[in-house]
Specification:
The complex is a heterodimer of chains A (170) and B (121). Chain A is α+β, with helices and mostly antiparallel strands and 170 residues long. Chain A has a single domain, classed as Alpha-D-Glucose-1,6-Bisphosphate, Chain A, domain 4 (2-Layer Sandwich). Chain A is 34% helix and 36% strand. An 8-stranded antiparallel sheet of chain A has the order 1-2-8-7-6-5-4-3, with helices on one face. In chain A, 18% of the residues are buried. Chain B is mostly helical and 121 residues long. Chain B folds into 2 domains: 75 residues, Orthogonal Bundle (Arc Repressor Mutant, subunit A); 44 residues. Helix content of chain B is 74%, strand content 12%. Chain B has 5 helices and 3 strands. In chain B, strand 2 and strand 3 form a beta hairpin. Chain B is rod-shaped, with a radius of gyration of 26 Å. The chains are: A alpha+beta (170), B mainly alpha (121). Chains A and B meet through strand 1, strand 2, helix 2, helix 3 and helix 4 of A and helix 1 and helix 5 of B.
């Protein structure tokens, strides 16, 4: 399968880069092969958004996804299987070019995410900028996220084992 | 772990801000050494060298192990590797997300094209 992908240049993925720009900022970039108008729609319509935000490799899915995309509007994502919720408020909504939202699940002073959509020749450069309240907050989020991923997968493994065992017993 | 998180980059940069400590890292890059070796090499008292090594150790740049009466120091790049590891985890998550986004955008482009053809008819 990999060999086939290599022989088909059209199937090549655009690279994703992540850089810690300053001690409080994390910047992620990616070009998407489509006009900003369409890419923006995929970020702002819940029925589209929920189809890509939680990739299968995460081992989770979205139970619900509510998005009121306007300045001051709220969003709320609830994950399955553990019902963890992510929520916040849209601070800026500029159609086809810019979205800014807060991340409030960790309490006040959570990071602020800015996404810009820059169209060039029918493609869109996405720049995702995450600004943390302090260096320590970003350090903790990073290490915490890495730990959480490991922990989540460990829990998932455990759950699958339990489920497997109980199915086997019945 | 909590302390590990809190110290983070600060400790790394503070540790690297001193010429002697950079020298110690360079030295340990060539070979492991005891604190006594290092103290001699940098013309320093044992206590002084212990302090420097302590700072490097706190930053995760050096690890030490006591065997018998000798404390051996070696490079411990754990912190830097861990920093790189979580950035890579973050990148992989976003790469996977964007791969899914590609599919949706492709689908929407096709739909738009199809709609355009319909309208023209």
């Amino acid at each position: 399968m990999d060999a086939r992908r290599e022989s088909e240049p059209t199937a090549m993925k655009n690279p994703t880069t992540v850089e810690r720009k300053t001690e409080r900022e994390l910047v992620t970039t990616r070009t998407v092969n489509g006009p900003a108008r369409i890419v923006f729609e995929a970020w702002t319509k819940p029925e589209l958004f929920k189809r890509w935000w939680v990739p299968k490799s995460m081992g989770m899915s979205l139970r619900s996804c509510e998005m009121d995309v306007r300045v001051g509007g709220k969003y709320r994502l609830v994950f399955e299987p553990d019902a963890i919720a992510f929520f916040g408020t849209y601070l800026e909504v500029t159609p086809h070019s810019r979205l800014v939202w807060t991340n409030e699940e960790g309490g006040e002073g959570g990071p602020v995410t800015t996404v810009t959509f820059e169209e060039k020749g029918g493609k869109t450069l996405l720049v995702l900028h995450e600004l943390y309240s302090s260096k320590e907050a970003l350090d903790a989020a990073g290490t915490g996220a890495a730990d959480a991923t490991v922990e989540t997968f460990a829990q998932l493994d455990e759950l699958l084992l339990t489920l497997g065992a109980s199915v086997g017993a019945e | 772990m909590v302390q590990y998180v809190r110290t983070g980059f600060d400790a790394s940069f503070a540790a690297l801000s001193d010429a002697t400590r950079r020298g110690v890292l360079e030295q340990l890059g060539r070979a492991d050494a005891s604190i006594t070796d290092l103290a001699q090499k940098f013309h320093m008292t044992l206590t002084g060298m212990k302090k420097h090594v302590g700072v490097l150790e706190q930053a995760g740049l050096v690890s030490t192990e006591k065997v018998g009466r000798v404390r051996t120091c070696k490079l411990g790049l754990r912190r830097l590797e861990e920093e790189a590891a979580w950035i890579e985890t973050h990148r992989q998550l976003w790469a996977a997300r964007f791969d899914e986004l590609d599919k949706i955008v492709e689908e929407m482009k096709q739909e738009e094209k199809a709609d355009g053809r319909k309208k023209r008819k």
